[in-house]
Every structure is written in C-alpha cells, then in structure tokens.
Please model this.
Amino acid sequence: MKLDHLEGLEPAERNNAEILRTVVILVVVMIIGGWLIIQQYIKHADEQHPDRPPISAEIKQNFSFINQDGKVVSIDDLVGKVWFTSPIALSQLDERNVSLEVMQRLAKDYADNDKVMFVSISVEGEDLGMTQAKLKAAADQLNIDSSKWWIITSKNTTDMHKYGKNQLRQGFVEKVKAADASEKWTFPDMVTMVDSERHIRQQYAFDDALIAQSSAEDIVAANPEKAKIDGADYYLKAIELLESRLRKNLDYVLNESQPGKLANDETKQ
Model:
C-alpha cells in the first residue's frame, strides 16, 4: 500500500542539545519537587508533634568496628549517647560532603557536651585495603578527636554496607564508573541522628538539600528577580534550614528523660 500523503516528508532533525536541555530541566524539576515533598512531610510531622523529632526506627543489632586508634568499638558502646553518623569515603575527601561539614560544625559547638558523639563509617572495609593507619591519617587531616568522633571500618565491606543499610538506614553504598572511567564510591550525603536508646530520630538528607539549593542558585543567577519570589529562601537556604532543624531536634533529644518525653514532662508525648 502506497502512502501518498507521506511522500516528500523528511525525518525530523534530531537536536541533541535541545533534548539534553529538556532532560536537565525535567531532572531539576523532579529533584526540587522531591525536596518539596520531603519538606511537606516534615511540616505534617511538626503539626502532629511540633517539638519532638519522631522515632523512625530502632537499631536492633550490634556491630563491631575498628576505630582510628586501632581500638575495637561497637554500636553497644554508644548506648547512653546521642550520636550522629554518616558514610565517608576516605579516598574522596577532596569532594564536597555536606554531611561531614555539618558534623564538623556540630562537633565544635557541642565539644563540651559528653553526651554527644559522632561516627563516620568508612565505605571501605579491611578486605578492600582500609587500615587503621589510613583511618588515623584521615582523622588527623580532619582534626578529629577519637574521644568525641570515631572514624571506623570493619573486616568485611559487604557486611558493613548491609548493616549500614538495614540497621542505620543509611541507604545504598556502591562503586560506579565515573565520567573519566575511574571508579568512585556513591552513597547518600545524609546524617542520621540516634538517641541514647538506639532509636533513629530522623535522617537529614543534605544531598537533596544541596541539589535543591544549587538548582535555585543557578535559576537566580540567570534571573535575579526570581530571588524576590515568596518562598525563594526555602530553596536558596535549604542546607542552612535543614541544619537548623537538626540542631533544634538535637537539643530536644538531649533534654529527654526517655524517648519522646522531656525531663520535666509527666506524660509521654
């Protein structure tokens, strides 16, 4: 069958630049939309319990590690502490890690509080060449005191990743090919807060905050008038706002007599 009405037509020219631009726009919209959904969820939680950070999970299993001093430490050793944890790639310390920056600021501001601890879990175990000497070198580089902050690893990388995902809810850690064909570690740039009884009291996705803030900054750079839009600071200060919330929640948890109950409360909220 001859399709006369198609005669003389030519295939549309593929505009790769325009396609790429459309994809980038869609990705940015999805990321900012995701950030907005997360913030709406937090707002809803605030309306239910305006002050209390929710208990999202409980760490039910112990796990042993080696810290930068070569000492065997475990999650059980942290009972009674309020602690923060996030993954760390010691081979990629030159890359920005917002969670690490936030934890460094917290460690400085809460240096005199013996109840607060910090834990950075290496994404590489001893079976992948991580050693106590490398942990110590990183701790020295970051000016970390082992009495307040552990940099830790374990013998088996796979088991350590499973524990981080299933117990600490830190998400997936994996190695991927970079643009230059080299391999690099990817993992959520996220801080998890754990209370004195091993309850996870929210997680703080600074990777989402960074993407939302960077995207907003790019938009404002191209069109400065956008900065005047009502609610623009919600995105332009995404990292600062998330850290502020984390600090507020930390102060609340430090004053609890038990999870969800302030020291001067008579009833559990």
